[in-house]
Design goal:
Length: about 425
């Protein structure tokens, strides 16, 4: 069993380059099934990325990593099936569905199980793919998908701007016949990044001024080279760590515009910010002030993934902060763990009231999910004494070498393995 051991209350100082975005690289890896040989730069070392590479390997692609670059050469085993254990390893593996049917006209994938963020249905993905001409049948826990006449473009209005459903359609529609228009599409920067990669491979994807995504199908795509954008959520997490523990840290290589909903919260909490197009410096000044309300929304609203790390900082503010989670149910799983460290948080449905306390204390706690785990690490950096954080495999899904990065900015954090 692996643990993170964090001794809190070191002031954080220094500069931290931000790794590539998990949520970009995963759909881009899926999209390589439809393209030719590709070189993807700035790929973070994450267990979710390994899982996606494993799925590609299973489907016949040759995948090789050279440092932060992943080289993919699509192949063909004739197998269009993702077995259950692979689907379980990475929840977002549903994003492979559009790519597999786009490439082979059929797919068989195990139904993704539930997850720790409440029910995470895939109805929007399936309804959208059906509109493109995919026939979907449930069969003993598997989804059997077939497009006997190939995929054909159409207008797909999404009832909710689901990130994953938008990505599935964008990928599948690239080589469909005719034009596909995704209305009410998700606008997350990772979708633009996916489109940039696909356009570099010969796709014809453009976003209209009203946000609709138009995909003009082409007969085939070729290979390409692409640099994955930086992870805005990792950047928001390290800024939250600094706000919580106190210090002066600059995150670099990240597009600050992607953080436009997050940065005002730090300012409201009394932090000083220096922002350039590709860096953010945050300096704390005395005790944090509360943030009146943080409401998670689809992009460009406040990202749900940054909610829990920011909450860790709010736990130490001089007053009450309110969080409203509008994207996922059960996204306050970190709260009982934060309470073990002395935090005062009330949860009622989608609302969390965080009554700031003057100090937190170290405790034996566990990661409840990826971002919840990051929140607990942020709280541990601010807490008196030592925190032992278990189940860190959640953190390894989305943060490359978290403890090394934290040490780089002055934290006392180490990974330990217990028998
Ligand atoms: C992606 C991100 C995740 C982020 C989330 C919201 C990746 C790999 N993951 O997840 O980090 O937290 O966007 O920004 O990019 N929904 C349905 N039916 C569907 C699909 C979604 O009801 O078919 C619901 C979900 O249950 C959830 C909401 O829509 O409540 C948002 O989900 P979605 O935008 O699809 O998120 P993901 O793509 O799963």
């Amino acid at each position: 069993m692996k643990y993170l051991v964090i001794r809190g209350q070191n002031r954080l100082e220094g500069t931290l380059p931000i790794h590539g975005a998990k949520n970009s690289v995963l759909p881009i890896l899926a999209a390589t099934l439809l393209t030719g040989e590709s070189a993807l730069h700035n790929c973070p070392r994450l267990s979710d990325v390994d899982a996606a590479c494993g799925i590609l390997g299973h489907l016949g692609s040759q995948v090789r990593r050279e440092g932060a670059c992943i080289l993919v050469r699509p192949g063909n085993t004739g197998d269009c099936c993702i077995p259950e254990e692979m689907m379980r390893r990475m929840r977002s593996s549903i994003v492979f569905l559009g790519a597999i049917v786009g490439r082979w006209g059929r797919a068989r994938i195990s139904l993704p199980g539930g997850c720790e963020l409440g029910p995470r249905p895939i109805d929007l993905h399936l309804a959208a793919l059906e509109k493109l001409g995919v026939q979907i049948r449930e069969d003993h826990g598997y989804l059997d998908c077939r497009a006997p006449e190939g995929l054909r473009g159409t207008v797909i209005p999404l009832p909710f701007p689901s990130v994953g459903a938008t990505e599935n359609v964008v990928i599948a529609a690239c080589t469909a016949r005719g034009e596909t228009v995704v209305k009410n599409a998700a606008r997350e920067p990772e979708i633009d990044d996916l489109a940039a990669y696909l356009n570099g491979c010969g796709a014809r994807i453009r976003t209209a001024p009203n946000g609709d995504i138009h995909i003009q199908g082409v007969p085939a795509l070729h290979g390409g080279e692409h640099r994955v954008i930086a992870d805005r959520i990792a950047a928001a997490t390290y800024l939250s760590c600094t706000a919580a523990a106190g210090g002066d840290v600059t995150v670099t290589g990240v597009c600050s515009e992607h953080l436009s909903a997050v940065l005002p919260c730090f300012e409201e909490m009394g932090c000083r910010l220096w922002v350039t197009p590709d860096s953010v410096r945050l300096q704390t000044q005395g005790r944090l002030r509360p943030v009146r309300s943080v409401r998670t929304l689809p992009y460009p609203g406040f990202p749900t993934d940054a909610q829990s790390p920011l909450m860790a900082a709010a736990c130490l503010a001089d007053g009450t902060s309110m969080f409203v989670e509008n994207i996922f149910e059960s996204r306050y799983k970190q709260v009982p763990e934060l309470r073990r460290m002395g935090a005062d948080v009330e949860v009622e449905g989608r609302v969390a009231l965080v009554h700031g306390v003057s100090r937190l204390h170290g405790a034996a706690v566990r990661c409840t999910d990826l971002r919840g785990g990051a929140a607990i690490a942020a709280a541990a950096l601010a807490a008196e004494g030592e925190t032992t954080l278990a189940q860190i495999e959640h953190i390894d899904r989305g943060y490359e070498a978290l403890e090394e990065n934290l040490r780089r900015i002055g934290a006392d954090a180490r990974r330990e393995e217990a028998p």
